[in-house]
Amino acid sequence: MKTNMKLGIANLMVAAVVLTGCGTNPSGSVAPNQESKPDAAGAAGKATEQAVHVFTARHYEVDTKLFEAFTKQTGIKVNEIKGTAEELVERLKREGASSEADLFITVDGGVLNYAKQNDVLQPLQSAEIDKNVPKQWRDKDNSWVGIATRARVIVYAKDRVKPEQLSTYEDLADDKWKGKLLARSSSSLYNQSLLASLIELNGEQQAEAWAKGVAANLARKPEGGDRDQAKAIAAKIGDVAIMNTYYVGQMLNSKDAEEVKVAQNIGVFFPNQSTTGTHLNISGVGLTKHAKNKANAIKLVEYMTGKEGQTILTNGSFEFPVNEAADKPELLKTWGTFKTQQLDFSKLGEHNKKATELLNKAGWK
Ligand code: FE
What we know:
single chain, alpha/beta, D-Maltodextrin-Binding Protein, domain 2, binds fe (iii) ion
């Protein structure tokens, strides 16, 4: 027990370091369970606490705003504990029944499934959640439910590329883009999941050839995140880039005038004609196996997936809502509908190892 407590505290520190490291939460809130004097507080203390403890691997400021809106409406506090998804799942496993966490939130369907497979979640049972989130955005056992989706698309320099020149992901491997293509590192889960989806839909051989073609066409050694690829287009280092749609929305609405300008000069292209359709991934939430504030945790998920929560979320992160009742930002409306990949999100996790191996083999650094 003592060892567990020590580990818990050590992890809390790790989480705090990760938090300040990523700099997404200037308030530096968190410190979730500092007040809970281990076992002495007891279950009764916790039951009257009216709080939900959230383990989250997401790094978007709007999530905090969403939780604050929920607190304002219900009086239930939300404590965020941040870390990488892997760290948080490990912690849930290690702490077992003594874990403070009620909810686990992350991006990526493969990662959500990884948490399910590690037996750290229990089904979210709520008719309201079922009504809010269409079946396609929920795990079949409701071990997790989607809160938003995101598309990984092609962006291009409006002044140098015509959308007619673009077609599919597959086409980005063509020689005509030699020295013109930009993408972040293959260590990014976003790229790993994109390739994992192509492994599932096009087969390993084609996926491998594609990764090689893309690596050969890169304008520079991968560096930075998705936003940096857009900036590199503005700097004329390359003409086309692979990027998640929501970063375009976040940049267009940034306080940084330079980011706004960069985003205004790139076009967003959905690879509808791709044999596979546009690659779509999901952000989701699961109820932890040992949640001590289960009723309140379910209330929070109902709020997050309801009209108001979805409107706040999508207007802040520029992801796509899972609940169509949301008032989407105008930008998303202008993008219209697009053809999406049809695949079981668990496949992203299943093929992750293979995808990483192929990316390395391809020389996509
Ligand atoms: Fe992101």
